[in-house]
Amino acid sequence: MIRVCPLSALPPGEALRVDAEPPIAVFHTDDGEVFAVDDTCTHQDASLADGWLEGCEIECPLHASKFDLRTGAVDAPPAKLPIRTHTVHIEDDHICVELSDAQPNLPPGVTFGSKS
Amino acid sequence: MRAVTIVGASLAGLYTAQALRTQGYDGEVVVIGDERARPYDRPPLSKEFLAGKIEADVLTLESADDDLDARWLLGSPAVSLNPATREVVLADGTRIGSDAVVIATGARARALPGTRQLAGVHSLRTIEDAAALRSELLPGARLVVIGAGFIGGEVAATAKALGLDVTVVEAMASPLAGPLGTQMGAVVSGLHEANGVALRCGVGVERIVGTGRVEAVQLVDGTLLPADVVVVGIGAIPNVEWLIRSGVALGNGIECDHQGRTGIPGVLAVGDCAAWYDQRLGRTHRVEHWTGAMERPAIAVAALLGGDGSSTDRLAGIPYFWSDQYDVRIQFAGHVIEADSVTVEEGAADSHNLLAVYRRGDVPVGVLGMNQARLFGRWRRQLNAAVPV
Prior knowledge:
The complex is a heterodimer of chains A (116) and B (389).
Chain A: E1 2-6, E2 15-18, E3 24-28, E4 34-38, E5 52-54, E6 57-59, E7 66-68, E8 74-76, E9 85-91, E10 94-98
Antiparallel strand pairs in A: 1-10, 2-3, 3-4, 4-9, 5-6, 6-7, 7-8, 9-10
Chain B: E1 3-7, H1 11-22, E2 28-33, E3 70-74, E4 78-82, E5 87-90, E6 95-96, E7 100-103, E8 107-109, E9 121-122, H2 127-134, E10 142-146, H3 150-161, E11 165-170, H4 177-194, E12 198-201, E13 205-211, E14 213-219, E15 224-226, E16 229-232, E17 236-238, E18 250-251, E19 253-255, E20 267-269, E21 274-278, E22 283-286, H5 290-305, E23 320-325, E24 328-334, E25 341-348, E26 353-360, E27 363-370, H6 373-385
Parallel strand pairs in B: 1-2, 1-7, 2-3, 7-20, 9-16, 10-11, 10-16, 11-12, 19-21
Antiparallel strand pairs in B: 4-5, 5-6, 8-17, 13-14, 14-15, 18-19, 21-22, 23-24, 24-27, 25-26, 26-27
Helix pairs in contact in B: 1-5
C-alpha cells in the first residue's frame, strides 16, 4: 500500500504522478472520485498524469489515446492494450493506493527499475 | 456503396479501413500497398527501433481483435487511376474497380542527386531503411546527418546515444526552422550542442565524396567532413506521380477540400500525400505529420459515407507533431507561418524545458512545448477550440 497524499492536496480535476516501479498516476475526478492507474501510456512512453482528464476518462498527452479510469479499457486508439488499474482507498483523509499484482502493459522498449 | 479501394497500407490507409467499419460500412474493402509489410508504425524507426530497443514485431499497427474483413494487395504499387470508372491499376497488372477510392499513398524520402549507389549513404522512411541504417550505427563511427529536421534530429540523437561521433549539417539558419521558426529552432541548436553533437547551420552540401563507399561530405564552403555513414534527411515528396493522368488536381500533394474530397466524385485523399483545405490558412496545405494521418481518415470516411457531408461537418484539428530528441520531448501545434511573434511563457531556452506561444498580433496561432506535456496539452486544446478568424 502506498500512502500518496492528503485528499485535500489533490483537488478535483487534478492528477499526480507517483514515483514507483512502474510509476503510478492518481486522478481526482470532477465528480470527486479518485482513481489510480499505471502512469505510462500502453502505446508509447508518455505520462498519463500530464494528460487531459474528462469525466472518468484520461487522454494521453502524446497521441490522444483514451483510457477508462474505472476499468483501464482503451476508449480510443492508437493504444491497443488496457492500462493497469490499482485500488484506491481513502484512509484518514489520505489517498492510499493498493498496487495491482497483474502484469503492467508497458509500451515496447520501456522498462522501470528491477521489477520490469 | 458496395466496394471501397484504399490505395496505401500505412497509418492513413489502415485508419481509413478502420473508420469505414467503425462508421457502419459493410461492403468490400480492398487495401493496396507498395510495401510487402502489413501496416507498421514509422515514428519509432528513427528512435527506439534505430536504437535497438525494440524490434519490428511491436511496430505492427493492427490489433489482434481488428475485424476489418479487408482484402490486402501488398507488394505492388498503384500506377494509375481512371477517374470515370475509379478503376485502379497496379504495377503487376491487377485491376481493381470500386465505388470509391481513398488515396493514402504517403510520401517518400527526398534523395540527394547522385548518391543512391554509394554504400553508407542512407535515407529513412521504411523499416528496411531503418534496419540497414541500424546495422551501420557502430560506436566510434563518424556519422554526418544532412538536414536537421525531424528525421535528422532524431537520428543524430539516437546515434549519439549509441556512441557515434555525430555532425549535423543544415542549410537553413537553425534546425527545424520551417516547422518552429528560426527563433525556437535556435533552442534546438543548443540542444544538439549541449549533447555533444556538432552542428553546421546555414551551409549547404556541395557533394558526397567516395567511390563505392562514402568517405566524406563536402560543404559548399569547402569544408570536408569525414564520414563513415551519412543520413540524408532533407524532407519528403508526396507519392502522387501515379495520378498525373487521372485528372485529380495536384499541387503540393493531392488537392482536397476540408474533408479530404478531391474534385472527382468518390475519390478522396488522406495522410502525407493529401493537401486538405485549411480554413485557418484559407488555402490547401499538405500535412505530413503522424497525427494527421491518424485523425483525418475518420473525417474523410464520414464525408464519403454521408454523401454531401453537410450533416457531418467535422473539421480537422490544427496540425500537431512531436519529436523526441535526446532527453527532450518537443511538441508543436498550429501554424508557424501565421505568426508574427513568439514568446517563451514558461521555463527557459537554456534548460530545454519551455512553453512558447506563437501569435499573430494578440491571437495565439501556435504553441511549442519542450518537456512541458501538461501545459502544452491545455494550449493545444484551446487552439483547436478557437474558431478560425
